[in-house]
Amino acid sequence: MDLFTHVLVAYLVSFIAFGPQAPLYIAAGALAGGLPDADILFFPLARRYPLLGHHGITHSLVGVTIIAAGGALFAPLLAGGLWWMFFLAMELGGISHILLDGFTNFAVPPLAPFSDRQVHLDADRAVNFATLAMTAVSFTVLLTERNRTPPEIWVFTAWVLAGIYALYLAVRGLGRLRVEGVRKREGYTGVIPTGNPLRWTLIEEAVGADGTRVRFRRYALGRGFTGPVHELKVHPEPGAAGPVGGAQEALDRSYPAAMARSRFLTRSYFFADVVPSPDAFEVFWYSLEFESLGRTAGVLARVDAASGKVETRSVWRRPPATGR
C-alpha cells in the first residue's frame, strides 16, 4: 500500500493497542509503519545487494525487529518513556506494514534473510487511489480535531476510522476468498484485484515450447462474469525481418521488444491489443496489474508492415476494448 496509508493504519493499530493516553507510543508505532519503505534510500546498493532492494530485508520480521530495536535504544533518550514500550510499539507498526503489503498484489519476504519466499494475498491494489483519498481525508480530520476539539471527540473519531479501515480490509479479504473459489472452478491460475473492491480479474498464463498463452476475464462480486474471455498467444521464435502479414505476426514481432522495454511487463501479467493501419500495426502491450485511474503501464509498439521494423516507447494509457 502507499506510504501514507501504512502510517495511518499503524497509527490506528497503535491507538487501539496502547490507548489514547499514550501519544508517544502511538507516534512511534505510526513512524515504524512507514519506515520499511525507507528502503528506497538503498537504491544505489540494491543492484549489488538485492536484499536491500524495495520489499527486501526491511519488509521482513528481521528487518522490522532491527528497526524496533533501534527505536527502543534512541527514543527514550529523545522523548522519555520506557524502552520496551517503544520496542513493542515499533514492532507492531512494522508488522502492520508487512501484513498490509502482503495483503496486496505486491509480494514481501517475511522470513528474509533466512528464506527468499515471497508472500502476497492479491486482495488489494498496492497503489489504490481510493484508499489514498480515504487516507488523505482521515489525516485531515485527525489533524483538524487535534487540540481543537474535546479529547473524547478525537478518541471517537479514531475508533470510527479504525472501524472503517477494518471493514474495508474485511470486504477485500472476503471478496478474495469468494473469487478464489471461482478461480479454481473455472481453471484460472491467478487473481488480480482492481481499484474497485467488488471487481476482479481472473487470469491464466502458460509458457511452453510452442509459445506464451494468456487468457483473462473480468468478474464482479454479486454479478458474476461481466465480459467475454480475452485470449492472447505469442509464438516463441518470430521472424526478425520482412513483411508482416497480419495481427498475429505483429504480436509475435513486437513481443521481444516490448518485454525488453518495460519492467512493468516482465514483472506482471500482461496482455496486448493490435490496431492495424494501411502501412503499420500499432500494438499496445500493457500490464494487467500496474494500473490506476483506468490507465495502465505498457509499451506502444509500431510494427512497419513492409519491413517488419519495430519501434517502441513506454506509455501510460487506457486499454481499448479490454480495459477495466
Could you give a quick summary of the protein structure above?
This protein has 324 residues and is of the alpha+beta class. It contains 9 helices and 9 strands.
Summarize this structure as a short list of keywords or feature phrases.
single chain, 324 residues, alpha+beta, 2 domains, five-stranded antiparallel β-sheet, four-stranded antiparallel β-sheet, 9 helices, 21% strand
Molecular structure report:
The protein is an alpha+beta fold. The chain has nine helices and nine strands. Helix 1 packs across helix 7 (151-186). The chain is elongated and about 75 Å long. The two termini are 21 Å apart. The mean pLDDT is 91.
